[in-house]
Amino acid sequence: MIHKSNATVEINLAKLKQNLQTLRTYLDEDTRVMSVVKADAYGHGAVEVASTLEPMVEAFAVNDIHEGIELREQDITKPILVFEVPQKTTASQYRVHNLTATVSAREHFDWLPNGTSYHLNFDTGMGRLGFAPEDSKLVLSLMRENQNLFCTGLYSHFATADSPGSDFVTEQHRLFTTIREQFPQELSAHISNTGATAFYSSEQFDMVRLGIGLYGYSPGKTTIEGINPVLQWKSKLVQIKPIIEQSTVSYGATWEAPADGNLGIIPVGYDDGLKRSLSEELTVRINGKKYPLVGNITMNYTMVFLGDDEYKPGTSVELLYAESNAQDWASKIDTIPYEILTSINPKIPREYIL
What we know:
The chain is α/β, with parallel strands linked by helices. The chain has helices at residues 13-24, 38-43, 46-53, 65-73, 92-96, 108-111, 136-145, 167-180, 194-199, 326-332, 337-342; strands spanning 8-12, 32-36, 59-62, 80-82, 100-103, 117-121, 150-155, 188-190, 207-210, 231-236, 239-243, 248-249, 255-256, 261-266, 283-286, 289-294, 302-307, 316-320, 350-353. The protein has eleven helices and 19 strands. The mean pLDDT is 96.
């Protein structure tokens, strides 16, 4: 991969480990953790995150088979569950790389080659992939008929566990409990995500899936105490130029300088993941001082009004930082921190702090 030199993403691995330890305080002593590292670990770097967490967790989850193969090729040895619907063209790779497939429809039993391990996915209310709860007896029969495949677990997804007090969570948990009771007890079972782990005291079965919480964010508006963002995004000033009062900046000429001063140019734009909808909504930090982004964010550049302050080209600029994190950005454009984090261009170098 060709890396961009206009910015750097810093990942604090010590905070990553601390977040895991904090989330473990919500778990029963014997509950195992499956670390979700799909989408390149939510933009944090799946290989580095998995390598750091492997001694501390019992399994990993990825979205597609290629993500799982990447981890195996980098010597990750713990079980890896692949969420995606199995593809006929790549199904042989589950066994080759010792990956666990997801079976969520009847035909998947026919697509997987002999010797493949899998988990069963049930749709208890997410309305996405998975067998219907009322088909559990049929699924159990299919599992027993396909002795050439190895079922090692079953799971479901909560739809509303990102905030406390949801009756729908209670109903999904009831349905999954009923399903679980029909299957052999040696199979692993998991439904709880970060929100269910932190906000609900119901039975966790034998495993939980932790994703966004590991990276320092709550899945909803209710804060999880003790977890902190792992990622910081930095760039630099590439040019500083004088600007006079009432001069306009960027496409649309929507912003006018309130006074004479200096304009800083940052070589990051929406191609890098700095969403255009955040135009004139953010402050960046330079030498500990906050400055507003002004004008529309463009594909490759963003402008910042420096007032009377003067800086040299090459001066560091903090884009995502503690006081302006992915949750803050998300709240400004009615989205979620997941989208902010996974939008950061993977070509921007990731630097890891121990």
